[in-house]
Amino acid sequence: MILYSRDAEADRAFFRDVLGYPHVDAGGGWLIFKAPPGELAVHPTDGEPAQEFYLMCDDLAATVAELTERGVEFTGPASDRGWGLITGIKLPGGGELGLYEPRHPLAHTLPD
């Protein structure tokens, strides 16, 4: 996964310092982060194909409170989509990262 950013240095610092993701330096400050367990879903669309990136958490309210204390800005209040509670994190480089508490069975817990 690669996130493109208008301010890659600020977004790298956000993942390193605010979210606390473990990382390696590939050289010259190009940080590569260890990603949490992930899942992939394919949704239908009538519009242009697109990709979105979401972080999952066990308790959205608690995670939002913790990240707010660290200075994280959100795109709006949480909304209930049925399959989960969702909000968005504003990245320093101008991007957005989805954050949600799933209310569906989790694929990342399946055995290999």
Automatic annotation (TrEMBL):
Signal peptide per UniProt: none
Short name of one Pfam family: Glyoxalase
Location of the VOC domain: 1-102
Highest taxon of the lineage: Bacteria
Gene3D superfamilies recorded: 2,3-Dihydroxybiphenyl 1,2-Dioxygenase, domain 1
PROSITE patterns per UniProt: VOC
InterPro entries for this protein: Glyas_Bleomycin-R_OHBP_Dase (IPR029068), Glyas_Fos-R_dOase_dom (IPR004360), VOC_core (IPR037523)
Protein name as catalogued: VOC family protein
Organism: Paractinoplanes globisporus
